Amino acid sequence: MRFNVPLLFFVTPKIHAGSSWDYLVDEAQEVGSTYNAVCTPDFFGFNDKGELQYCGSLHDAGFNDPTNRTPELLNAMRQVAKTGCGLKHQIPSMGCSIKWK
Q1: What HEC string does the chain produce?
Q2: Rounded to whole angstroms, how far apart are CA atoms 49 and 59?
Q3: Nearest to 44 by CA among 17, 1, 67, 36
Q4: How far apart are CA 33 and CA 27, in angstroms?
Q5: pLDDT tens, 2-21?
Q6: 60 near 69, Cβ under 8 Å?
Q7: Which of 7, 11, 81, 96 is at a distance of 20 to 30 A from 53, taking alpha carbons?
Q8: What is the pTM of this model?
Q9: Cβ-based neighbours of 53, under 8 Å, separated by 6 or more
Q10: Is residue 48 a contact partner of residue 84, using CB atoms and an 8 Å limit?
Q11: How far apart are CA 31 and CA 19, in angstroms?
């Protein structure tokens, strides 16, 4: 699988009306299961060769005050776009556990 640009998908229980991004509706939960998603949202970023380069959090604030958060996902995908490789240190996502069918 190859992409013209880095690709990002996330596992989420909601579809956000009016969103300007592409998203995956994984009703059969096959994709989430394949990539070992554990919570919602769970973020997965791929390079232009289709290789998984990021599996981590949106930011480092967790459930704390996000005022001075580090944008982990944004930084990771910028690096993937620039180098084709993800960050060495990745913080796991936090959220509600997936209700597997």
Answers
A1: CCCCCCEEEEECCCCCCCCCCCCCCCCCCHHHHHCCCCEECEEEEECCCCCEEEEECCCCCCCCCCCCCCCHHHHHHHHHHHHCCCCCCCCCCCCEECCCC
A2: 25
A3: 36
A4: 11
A5: 444 455 666 655 555 565 55
A6: yes
A7: 96
A8: 0.75
A9: 6, 45, 46, 47, 76, 80, 84, 85, 86
A10: yes
A11: 21
Residues in the chain: 101
Cα–Cα distances (Å) from 72 to 15, 27, 48, 77, 101, in that order, read: 22, 27, 19, 9, 30
